[in-house]
Specification:
alpha+beta; six-stranded mixed beta sheet; 4 helices; 6 strands
Length: about 140
């Protein structure tokens, strides 16, 4: 990230709200992804990965929450929890990290819980638009 760039700390797009992921989201995040492992693994960007991992404990998930918060604070990567804007229920997650594919400067993955699958495209479209206007990226790899 450029030194003077102010990393966005929230996005509200329709019924969805993005906020930086942190330890305070542990229980709701854990419930969201553990209820949706097969759905997440079928989501572009997650096939063939070792996450989500059946058998992962809440304590291990909390360690992940802390890691993502540390990455955010150090400006190494930006993970946002996706909340229902009205109920504040965890709907999913968005990960913005440096790209590992030549010609791209950021890699973005996202997932929504299985019972919110209809909001997957809504989330992707909102994130694409947000990255285009509020972030300094030239080329983003959207893991499709």
């Amino acid at each position: 990230m450029p030194d003077g760039f102010q990393v966005p700390t929230a996005l509200t797009a329709g019924a969805l709200r993005l906020e930086p992921l942190g330890p305070q989201h542990n229980d709701a995040d854990y419930e969201a992804w553990t209820s949706s492992i097969d759905h997440i693994r079928a989501t572009p960007g997650f096939a063939g990965r070792d996450w989500p991992a059946p058998g992962m404990t809440r304590e291990q998930n909390l360690a992940d929450m802390r890691m993502h918060a540390e990455h955010f604070a150090a400006r190494q990567g930006f993970t946002y929890t996706v909340l229902d804007a009205a109920s504040r229920e965890v709907v999913g997650c968005v990960y913005i990290y440096p790209a590992d594919r030549p010609g791209h400067d950021a890699r973005v993955r996202s997932w929504v819980r299985a019972d919110r699958a209809a909001q997957d495209d809504e989330l992707r479209q909102a994130v694409r638009a947000w990255l285009a206007v509020a972030w300094p990226f030239r080329a983003v790899d959207f893991d499709r």
